[in-house]
Amino acid sequence: MLRETVRALADDKIAPRAADVDETGEFPWDVYDALVHADLHAVHIPERYGGAGADAIATAIVIEEVARACAASSLIPAVNKLGTVPLLLAGSDELKQRYLPQVARGEGMFSYALSEPEAGSDAAAMRARATASAGGYVLSGTKRWITGGGTSKFYTVMAVTTPDIGPDGISAFVLEKGDPGFSFGAPEHKLGIRGSQTCELYFDNCEIGADRMVGAEGTGFKTALRTLDHTRVTIAAQAVGIAQGALDYATSYVKQRQQFGRAIAEFQGVQFMLADMAMKLEAARQLTYAAAARSERAMTSGVAGSDLTFFSSACKCFASDVAMEITTDAVQLLGGYGYVQDYPVERMMRDAKITQIYEGTNQIQRVVMARQLLKG
Questions:
Q1: Tens digits of residue pLDDT in 203-257
Q2: What is the SS3 assignment for the chain?
Q3: Which of 64, 200, 325, 359 is catalytic?
Q4: Is 207 a catalytic residue?
């Protein structure tokens, strides 16, 4: 029922806007409003904070179905989860009560700021500083590649509070758009997900209260990594949705396209391509749901299972590789039509690429998986 509900909304309100959102690169506020109205913009937020209280599998299904229609729009529920999971994992009750209901009501999105110009895959090498002051902390530095930058109202920001001790010197904070000294760079011009703004964040002696810290001082990096264990599942779900959209369109197309006097769907070479696409997609979906189940158990119990890190990296890595393969094959099946913007599969192929990169490149995911296999 959930899938049918989201798919109906996506087909009605989101899919018709996808090409225009991609072409203009503008955030789809009308889509955001539609998702808020349907209570699908941040379904993971618990009921006690005014949210729908959806579990991790249900959240994955929502993101998957929105991504099937428009990958950029699927980042609305995905980024809201990424930005707020640190609060759910480590935030004080006061911090949760202050921010989570606002997100649940649709009063602002919540982004996550970890990467920096010189600290991408090596996030622990960050240089952004949070220096203790009489009133709290003063932040200085830059964050880069921030999804929802400038669009979101709230940000979970990781910064160094104790230099020279590595990851244990990093803390997490909540920043608000409009905080004095907090500003944004120009939006990046991207290959895909153009309707989701990505930009740098600048902190110029930005002073915030000590009550904005998420968890204890020095625990920010641990919280950041624990967050990614949960939210890489949402990237896998996004990848599954993009791939499903491409497969659906390609399947419909080959049944209509006539060559040599018959539909190209009747050629065995085309049939084998479709079979492989569908088989790999279903494997990616099931791995994503398996990881989501582990994420939900960890979130509910407060204790991460021993295999959550492996499964979250595995599903993100596998699903994104599959999405890139399926969208590329969809373009191939459409031939010249697949290469032009009059048809959606070229957009889907461009959108799929980022799923192999953000929240940890797939090369990093393989490092993470190998470490999990070899530890102990």
A1: 999 999 999 999 999 999 999 999 999 999 999 999 999 999 999 999 999 999 9
A2: CHHHHHHHHHHHHHHHHHHHHHHHCCCCHHHHHHHHHCCCCCCCCCHHHCCCCCCHHHHHHHHHHHHHHCHHHHHHHHHHHHHHHHHHHHCCHHHHHHHHHHHHCCCCCEEEECCECCECCCHHHCCCEEEECCCEEEEEEEEEEEECCCCCCEEEEEEECCCCCHHHHEEEEEEECCCCCEEECCCCCCCCCCCCCEEEEEEEEEEEEHHHEECCCCCHHHHHHHHHHHHHHHHHHHHHHHHHHHHHHHHHHHHHCEECCEEHHHCHHHHHHHHHHHHHHHHHHHHHHHHHHHHHHHHHHCCCCCCHHHHHHHHHHHHHHHHHHHHHHHHHHHHHHHHCCCCCHHHHHHHHHHHCCCCCCHHHHHHHHHHHHHCC
A3: 359
A4: no
pLDDT of residue 317 exceeding 80: yes
Q: What does residue 132 show for φ and ψ, rounded to 5 degrees?
A: -60, 140
* pLDDT tens readout for residues 201-213: 999 999 999 999 9
**Contact between 112 and 227 (Cβ < 8 Å):** yes
User: Cα dist. 112→174, 215, 275, 326, 329 in Å?
Assistant: 9, 15, 38, 29, 33
Q: pTM of the entire structure?
A: 0.97
Length of the chain as a residue count: 376
**In this structure, is the dihedral angle defined by the CA atoms of residues 82, 88, 93 and 96, taken in order, positive or negative?**
positive
Token code pair at residue 213: 């810290």
Query: Is 187 within 8 Å of 166 (Cβ atoms)?
Result: no
Q: Considering only CA atoms, which of 208, 136, 214, 144 is closest in space to residue 173? A: 214
- Average pLDDT on 343-350 reads 98
- Residue 163's pLDDT is what? 95
Cα(303)–Cα(107) distance, integer angstroms:
31
CA gap 298, 49 in Å, rounded: 19
Rounded-to-integer distance, Cα 290 and Cα 34, Å? 29
Task: Find all residues with CB under 8 Å of 81, minimum gap 6, and list them.
Answer: 42, 44, 59, 230, 231, 234
